[in-house]
């Protein structure tokens, strides 16, 4: 049984998730900790709960989702896992930070690229990798079928979808990603988004105007 704990970090109010199993091994998803007190919040949670982080996953590499990558890489010796299309995005981190007024150093730690439909094994648990570009060229979602939940990044939010007006975004791709990758998944699935509260796919199919638009089209 996996436990999911969320933190809301940085000026963009990004959700960072720690997912841990009964052996207290943990995946850190999108560490957005920016300020030293946010890094301490993450590290204290890990030490107080006697958790061992073993995997670092990035749904995509917009700055608010990778502020803490270097911290996690250095403190826990973890390799960042993301889609190869996100390499140019993470390479622009110092540039983007300067533009938004949040200076950051480049991420220089280890990287491993993950692929569409890859199965990520984590102890006895498995996550299926869904390639869901649109908000970012290499956006991924991670689906855990056994517990029926999705780590959705900035693809879908409660009542919304990820913005597609930034460089590297493509609104057609985003709609297509939802249609091909998310639509086949169960209504009961819980969605843990990159921003805002958790929701379920069934709830979004009833109330999310973007999802309703897709349903009306198909
Ligand atoms: Zn984003
Ligand atoms: Zn975001």
Description of the structure:
It is built from 8 helices and 14 strands. The chain has helices at about 35-50, 65, 70-75, 85-90, 95-100, 170-180, 200-205, 210-215; strands spanning about 5-10, 15-20, 25-30, 50-55, 80, 110-115, 120, 125-130, 140-145, 150-155, 155, 160, 190-195, 200. The model has no long low-confidence stretch (mean pLDDT about 95). By secondary structure, it is of the alpha/beta class. The protein is globular and about 45 Å long. The strands form 3 sheets. It has a 6-stranded mixed β-sheet, covered by helices on one side. A 6-stranded mixed β-sheet has the order 7-8-9-10-13-14. Strands 11-12 form a two-stranded antiparallel sheet.
Helix and strand pattern: EEEHEHHEHHEEEEEEEHEEHH
Largest sheet: 6 strands, mixed
**Helical proportion?**
25-40%
| Small molecules bound | zinc ion
Question: Which percent range describes the beta-strand content?
Answer: 25-35%
Please, how many helices?
Answer: 8
In round numbers, the mean pLDDT is 97
Contiguous runs where pLDDT drops below 50 for at least 5 residues: none
Output the radius of gyration. Answer: 16 Å
Gist of the model:
30% of the residues lie in helices and 28% in strands. The chain contains eight helices and 14 strands.
């Amino acid at each position: 049984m996996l436990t999911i704990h969320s933190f809301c970090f940085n000026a963009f109010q990004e959700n960072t998730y720690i997912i841990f199993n009964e052996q207290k091994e943990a995946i850190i998803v999108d560490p957005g900790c920016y300020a030293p007190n946010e890094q301490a919040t993450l590290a204290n949670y890990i030490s107080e709960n006697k958790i061992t982080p073993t995997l670092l996953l990035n749904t995509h590499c917009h700055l608010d989702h990778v502020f803490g990558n270097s911290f996690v890489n250095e403190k826990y010796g973890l390799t960042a896992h993301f889609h190869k299309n996100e390499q140019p995005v993470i390479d622009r981190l110092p540039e983007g930070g300067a533009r938004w007024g949040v200076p950051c150093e480049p991420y220089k730690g280890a990287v491993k690229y993950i692929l569409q439909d890859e199965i990520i094994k984590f102890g006895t648990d498995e996550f299926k990798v869904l390639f869901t570009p649109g908000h970012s060229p290499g956006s991924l979602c991670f689906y855990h079928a056994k517990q029926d939940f999705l780590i959705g990044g900035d693809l879908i939010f409660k009542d919304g979808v990820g913005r597609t007006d930034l460089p590297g975004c493509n609104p057609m791709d985003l709609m297509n990603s939802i249609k091909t990758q998310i639509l086949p998944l169960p209504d009961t699935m819980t969605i843990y988004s990159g921003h805002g509260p958790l929701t379920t796919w069934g709830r979004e199919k009833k109330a999310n105007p973007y999802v309703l638009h897709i349903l009306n089209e198909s």
